[in-house]
Amino acid sequence: MATNARSIASLSLSFGLVNVPVKLYSATEPGSEIRFNLLDKDGSRVKQQYVNERTRAVVERKDMVKGYEVEDNRFVLFTPQELKNLEEGSSHVIQIVSFVPVASIDPLYYDKSYLLAPDKRGDKPYALLAEALRQSGRCALAKWAWKAKQYVAQIRANEDGLILQQLRYAEEVRSLADLDIPQAEVSKPELQLALQLVEQIAADEFDPTQFEDDEKARVLAAIEEKVKGKQIVASAHEEDGTPGSGQVIDLMDALRASLGGKKPAKEAKEAKPSNVTALKPKPAPARKAAKRVNAEPEAAPAPRRRAQK
User: Nearest Cα to 193, choosing from 261, 138, 125?
Assistant: First the structure.
């Protein structure tokens, strides 16, 4: 862990009679996205102000209070002390309630990630829990009350240590079942070519360092040109090598073209089903269901065929 990393809190993982003192760290760096400031036409900064909706008078921050809307435009007000009292239910104990297979949690439930490191006198139980999770292929499900909210959390182990992953509640996750996706028939030859294409560009593991933010680099380069006094013009994105035609083509031809026009030397092995079935998100309540779009989808663009030697 970086030497300049600062812990957010000192907590304790609890399962059975075992307590693991840990420190909580953010797993991500503060955002480094490109930001543009709002200015007046003369280049001066503009100041944001809060205005009383009824009187249109400017309200200073020291005069603001927080309220919860109980009915339309009717609020119950809370003082700063009352808001602080609401957060006093926070706990420094993360209570593990069960151990489940890692693959049984759909990543759709993943929310914010944190890193866990052992606190004082926590080295041995920390190492023991991490190794037990690695050997069993399981992760821990836990409950954690923090800042007036209770979280469901996953605690999983990688080769370096423990990660705490906040999970979303079932009602917060939508399901693909709500989209009424049609189940199209797939032929065996089509599947064999698709599997061969997968193997052609397959990698043994995910390497995040091979990906760079090309759009950010492009914008920064344009900003640099602007700094030098040059005029910035809108630039079209480079095409990916496929024509922009809406022509519908044969699926087998598209697969063969993706493979360079070569026929498979042998049939692709049938994929073995996993012994662990990932939990699927529960269907969202009807009141939250998104409106369906009736527009017909555009046909897939036809890829170029590679010239045969």
Answer: 261
Q: What is the DSSP-derived secondary structure letter of residue 204?
A: S
User: Quick one: CA dihedral 150, 156, 162, 163, positive or negative?
Assistant: negative
Supply 58's token pair: 């400017």
pTM: 0.64
Please choose, from the candidates 176, 19, 204, 23, the residue with its C-alpha nearest in 3D space to the C-alpha of residue 95.
Answer: 19
Q: Which of 166, 168, 144 is CA-nearest to residue 284?
A: 168
Whole-number Cα distances in Å, 18 to 14, 38, 95, 123, 135: 6, 53, 11, 13, 18
Question: Tens digit of pLDDT for each residue in 154-205?
Answer: 999 999 999 999 999 999 999 888 898 998 999 999 999 999 999 998 999 8
Q: Does residue 285 or residue 80 have the better pLDDT?
A: 80
Tell me how far CA of residue 46 lies from CA of 37, 38, 40, 52, 227, in angstroms: 9, 6, 6, 19, 22
**Alpha carbon distance 260, 304 (integer Å):** 10
Alpha carbon distance 144, 9 (integer Å): 13
How many C-beta atoms lie closer than 10 Å to residue 11's C-beta?
22
Find the helix or strand (DSSP H, E) in which 136 lies.
helix 123-136
pLDDT tens-place string over residues 47-67: 889 999 999 999 999 999 999
